[in-house]
Amino acid sequence: MAYFNHAFNKTFVVSSVEENANTATSALTAGQLALVDGSDWESVALQAGAGVPTIVDNLGYIVQGSFYSKDTIGNNPGHGGYKESVKSKGLNPRYITKLWSTNCLTASQATASLSLASDCAPCGKTQFMRIDVKGSPALRFLNHNAYAIADSANVCCIDGQEYIDPALVLGAMAKMALGDPLIKPFVAEAALNGVSAATLSAAGSGYAVASDVATTGGSSGSSGLKVNIDTVTGAGGIATFSIANVGSGYVAADVITISGGGGDATFIVDSVSAGGVVVSVTDAAGEVVQSIYTIEQTQDGTYVPSTTPNAAGAKVSAEVKFVGAYVDTVFGNCSFDTRDHYNKEPVEIIVSQLDETGNPCNDCGVASKTPGSMQQTQGEEVIRELIMSERYRQSPYNQGNADSARIRQIELSDELLAAVDRTATYRAYYVQHSVPRFNNPTGVFDNDQYQYKIYVKCSDAAAQTAVEKLLTNIANWAGDNGNKISVETNAYW
After folding, report:
1. How many CB atoms sit inside 10 A of residue 28's CB?
2. How far apart are CA 421 and CA 400, in angstroms?
3. What is the pLDDT of residue 442?
4. What are the angstrom distances between the C-alpha of 114 and each of 239, 244, 368?
């Protein structure tokens, strides 16, 4: 490997693993993987734990059943062999150099928010908000990053009013920004599904009056809900409570347990709001009560704004939240082309408050953002890898012509496309080995190096477990032959 450190690749897309012995390669079903003994071309039994598979003084092979349902095209024996199983090069346990796997990392949206305090919007002064959209989706759409500036010019005060309700201001600016044709394809209002109403179902015991009390329970993915215990009975049962933090990810009828006390007070979520505007009212004692609205509700009269948002006993603050919402154009399998673009990078959103001169406002308003993350291995990447691997096997794949869809049907390429879920996330497992050149006196030639990519759907836990067992058996087999290697993985890839 002195000069050429690349490897020849082959791709397997796996739905199951043959873990028992004596299954012929011709009997493997589509997407079924096996570790095969080169002496008889039959599968070997996969061992548990540190067990070593029985491959003695022979090469081993990674073999997968073909995705093609017919062996020939048009019954022409000159175009045959499509049902032949997919095989690796012969594996010598002493020359297996690396085994590793990736994690199932799903994509996450970028988020951004802007908060205004009770005294951030004086009457007679227009507020401005800027949204920037950055990343490859914006660059492909516009050839430059996008931004828009929105204002609160249509929000008016009544006689004697000193400050404008910040929820009203944020709602007006957010509505204008999201209506901008350059921003609309990339940004949307966050759908928090925060709790908007709840009913006490069990008073519990041992509680005391307290603020910002944590809760447990709720739907999968829900978090952040907190309550204020406003009054209690003599036995410490909760009599009344209010929402201190609306949380996110809840659904109606969720049963929530209030922490502390005897841990036995519960309430039922009556309704949730998918809105992205959270309004907080702080009383003179510092206790916060939150409510949640959509941007439209802050403008259509559903939300009743305060005319004294900076009052000592009821200070009103608000926060509006946005998420990246770009959806790329995706064509179906019928017109699929490997040259089609598929998006990997989530958009980045930056929200900021500006003063009337267009400069950043540093004395009021708090902006925050969280970058999105890319999923590890998309189905779009897997299908392209699989097609390329099959092309090296001389399997046809026609594209770019007016009749390509018909030709792909004739040449069985549609069965290859159907083998991969392009909308799914896959976990990748890798086996790398070399075939040494013993007759290489000048050192000009490098050892041939091969890398096998084994893709398994992240939703298929059984197949993942089976493939991990197969890789562990390969590592044990290599170790038994003096090549001490292990399956590498970490939390980052």
Report:
1. 22
2. 22
3. 67
4. 35, 19, 7
Kindly tell me the sign of the dihedral angle through the C-alpha atoms of 423, 424, 427, 429: negative
Which residues pair with residue 450 across a beta bridge? Answer: 8, 433
Tally of CB atoms within 10 A around 40: 12
pLDDT confidence of residue 489: 86
The predicted structure's pLDDT at residue 70: 87
* C-beta of residue 280 within 8 angstroms of C-beta of residue 143: no
Partner residues linked to 240 by β-bridges: 231
H or E element at residue 391? helix 379-392
Phi, psi torsion values for 449, nearest 5 degrees: -125, 135
Residue 294 · residue 268 · CB < 8 Å: no
- The pLDDT value given to residue 2: 43
Residue ranges for the chain with pLDDT beneath 50:
1-3
Domain extent listing, the chain: 8-104+378-488, 111-370
Q: Which residues contact 279 (CB under 8 A, 6 or more apart)?
A: 167, 290, 291, 292, 293, 303, 316, 317, 318
The per-residue pLDDT for range 275-316, each reduced to its tens digit, is: 999 999 999 999 999 999 999 999 999 999 999 999 988 999
Query: 0.85 exceeded by the pTM?
Result: no
107: left (phi over 0), alpha (psi -120 to 50) or beta: beta
- For residue 365, the model assigns a pLDDT of 85
Residue 443: what pLDDT? 64
pLDDT at 4 (0 to 100): 54
Residues whose CB is less than 8 angstroms from the CB of residue 387 and which lie 6 or more positions away in sequence, other chains included: 338, 397, 416
Dist CA 18 CA 467 (whole Å): 10
pLDDT for residue 189? 95
Which residues of 177-264 form beta strands (DSSP E)?
Answer: 187-189, 194-202, 210-217, 226-232, 238-245, 255-258
Q: Sign of the CA dihedral 215, 216, 218, 224? A: positive
Beta-carbon-side half-sphere exposure of residue 290 (alpha carbons within 13 Å): 26
